[in-house]
Amino acid sequence: YAKERRAGLEASFDGGALGIKGVQCVMVGTTDLNRARQKWDDLLDPVPIRDSATWKAGAGPAITLVEHPCNLLVRLEIAVESLATARGFLAGNDLLGEASSTELTLKPAAVDGLDIRFVAT
């Protein structure tokens, strides 16, 4: 049932004005990388860890842990169909932060400093 429901939701989602395809990566900051790694490994079992602190379960986003002075969400990477389309929307709504040929950022002040990046797939 879950696979059919997901397929239906994906088919009905058009990505909006940004052309969003999905979340590609969630980066989580932790003050104790070893402890957090073990807890996430237990939570995501049987999904194997890909490197020292990244998991990728099925078609979902990668989850990456990084050392940080606080325990918090550090970054979201969102896949879009076209960086040009996303750039036009973000710039037109005064939301465009830094931009390169491979990624765009949402202006940090618009989202309380959270690092939200858009990458083409």
Structural class: alpha+beta
| Total helical elements | 3
Radius of gyration: 16 Å
Portion in strands = 35-45%
For the termini, the CA-CA separation is 28 Å
Low-confidence stretches: none
What string gives the helices and strands in order? HEHEEEEHEEE
Strand order of the largest sheet: 2-3-4-1-5-8-7-6
User: Average pLDDT across residues?
Assistant: 92
Oligomer: single chain
The main β sheet shows up as: 8 strands, mixed
State the shape: flat
Number of E strands = 8
Q: Helicity range of the residues?
A: 25-40%
Summarize the structure.
With 121 residues, the protein is of the alpha+beta class.
How would you sum up this structure, described in words?
The protein has 121 residues and is of the alpha+beta class. The protein is built from three helices and eight strands, in the order αβαββββαβββ. The chain has helices spanning 2-12, 33-44, 83-92; strands at residues 20-30, 49-51, 54-56, 62-67, 72-80, 96-99, 103-106, 115-120. Strands 2-3-4-1-5-8-7-6 form an eight-stranded mixed β-sheet, with helices on one face. A hairpin with a 2-residue loop joins β2 and β3 (54-56). The longest helix is centred in the N-terminal third of the chain and has 12 residues, at 33-44. It is flat, with a radius of gyration of 16 Å.
